[in-house]
Amino acid sequence: MKQCLSKVASLALVILTACADTKQRNLPTAPKSVIRTSDTLIGSYEFNGGIAPSDVCISVTVSRNGGKYTLDFLAAHPDAHGASPDGSGVGHIGSDGVLRFAYEDSFSNQGSGTFRRSPLGYVLSIQIDHVHDSRCMIFYGDFTLQRANSTTSDMKPATAHDPQPTSAGRTHPNNTDERAEARIGAGLS
Q1: Based on the structure, what is the number of domains in the chain?
Q2: What angle is formed at CA 30 by the lines to CA 28 and CA 35, rounded to 5 degrees?
């Protein structure tokens, strides 16, 4: 028993000495949580509300150029009627892991937004402050997106707790298997 305790004590001493030695050399250490959080937002995301004319399909890509992040946005109705805005925003990711950006679309609507990870996917929230074309407003508000896969058939369907927008812009938990299957054929590429 004494030999075991002696070996544990020796190992602890070696570890403590190594840690102290690292601090004395002032080796740079990166804040891992900031790096991990910001890198996890880079990628492509999709929201497919269904195939009804009042439903919406949204595609978002987040990229990084130096210290700035760009969010590119594409939206349309699944039957291609009405306005189909595309836009972008440039911003930064805070220590809380939320991308905050200024936004403008192809119809000159302007505002701001956030993009963050949530338990159900990635929450995109765009608030338009200066409305130039109100036909685009159905595409803005809060949407829960899923990371886009290489093929649309691999898309993760929304859960029953993931609210879907209605034509009035409100949300309802109407996510049936039929809607999930319909999203595969109505997805944006």
Answers
A1: 2
A2: 160
